[in-house]
């Protein structure tokens, strides 16, 4: 890939020169992104492509106003023009903001994704051969009518410079390396069509080529294909009230939709109601609300090595630290950056994040994890008299307040009298968020704890698609409404 612009001393000098020192607070957030997309479908290589995207966001707080301006013109003239536009909008919004206090943090620091094996040590021909090999392992039967394998690699480098009339200044440099592997196989027999994937899109993270080994990418294709075929002859998922055991790759969707989004402070404050909805959570719930059973412990932790949304600082420059959001079932903290914290008077975290250089930061999930418990997965299975083990989300529906939900999965296993007795197809379950989490009756230990991610969470106007990290062990929920789809 090309030389990193973030390493240009001349560029940093231009950014620093452009930042005004006669305002309450000013920042320049430079982002340089490069990506490679490789895919083999039905043993045929699809067109390869790379992406390059570079620009800077200028932010100015002054006299109670806030202004943004984004540009790809990194010349001195281009940066000066962006500063002028941001100044203009700060003047227009003065006196009309829901919050007037400018940031005071001028942090200095760095963050670098942990990389054990740099991506470029795996030559392009080897990457393509790996995908061809996985494709051949997926297309093992005439009943598999569609299949594919893909690899995406993204390198994102950021530089955040800050200045103010107080004379304080800051500099934060962060370098992210992401890998997104994917496998899928679709089997068909008559009117029955079933798809099995490699954890949906959840098996992704920060790092280099070692990310593939972390999730067993090289050994997964055969299992994915075999389970797609198995589902063709599997009975429909039973319907009724029973126990639900959620595998980690289904837990991440449950965490994301019914904990992550409801706890975003800007959503609680009403900012997202026109687009992504509101929340059943209200400000008075923090500190006392029984969100789940005593077994539920949820952390915001952007310090986990290799997780998709790990970082050292959020995009407002706030240092990132591990914090409990839910502790022993009690709601204690929301997902809101410094602006939302000031507006709401509630405790938050360092999660003000932007999709890229041309979007302002808003409250977003980062790494949101359910902490491990004390049970083994076998113990959880043996404790279930009648239930279903759910794997890999494939559909979701949840209301605007993130309360009532219905989720479907790719693959289910029926549990009877403490034993797995066979696969079931089209498994689904439904519930109400707080009632569901209060039904949490078993949390597996660290042996099943899996660090994963959601690469495509959308929110905000203008829309921002961003990666979030989630980790969880397998979890058991009692007395859940389970159902099967039509064959």
Structure description:
- The protein contains ten helices and 24 strands.
- The model has no long low-confidence stretch (mean pLDDT 95).
- The protein has helices spanning 9-18, 76-93, 124-138, 210-214, 217-233, 248-260, 265-268, 338-344, 377-382, 433-438; strands spanning 25-41, 44-45, 49-62, 65-71, 108-112, 144-163, 169-189, 192-197, 205-206, 240-246, 298-300, 323-327, 330-331, 352-353, 362-363, 367-370, 386-398, 404-416, 419-424, 427-432, 440-443, 450-459, 464-472, 475-484.
- Strands 1, 2, 3, 4, 5, 6, 7, 8 and 9 form a nine-stranded mixed β-sheet that branches. The protein has a six-stranded mixed β-sheet with strand order 13-12-11-16-23-22, with helices on one face.
- The protein has 487 residues and is an alpha+beta fold.
Topology:
Elements: H1 9-18, E1 25-41, E2 44-45, E3 49-62, E4 65-71, H2 76-93, E5 108-112, H3 124-138, E6 144-163, E7 169-189, E8 192-197, E9 205-206, H4 210-214, H5 217-233, E10 240-246, H6 248-260, H7 265-268, E11 298-300, E12 323-327, E13 330-331, H8 338-344, E14 352-353, E15 362-363, E16 367-370, H9 377-382, E17 386-398, E18 404-416, E19 419-424, E20 427-432, H10 433-438, E21 440-443, E22 450-459, E23 464-472, E24 475-484
Parallel strand pairs: 5-7, 10-17, 16-23
Antiparallel strand pairs: 1-2, 1-3, 1-6, 3-4, 6-7, 7-8, 7-9, 10-24, 11-12, 11-16, 12-13, 14-15, 17-18, 18-19, 18-20, 20-24, 21-24, 22-23
Helix pairs in contact: 1-2, 3-5
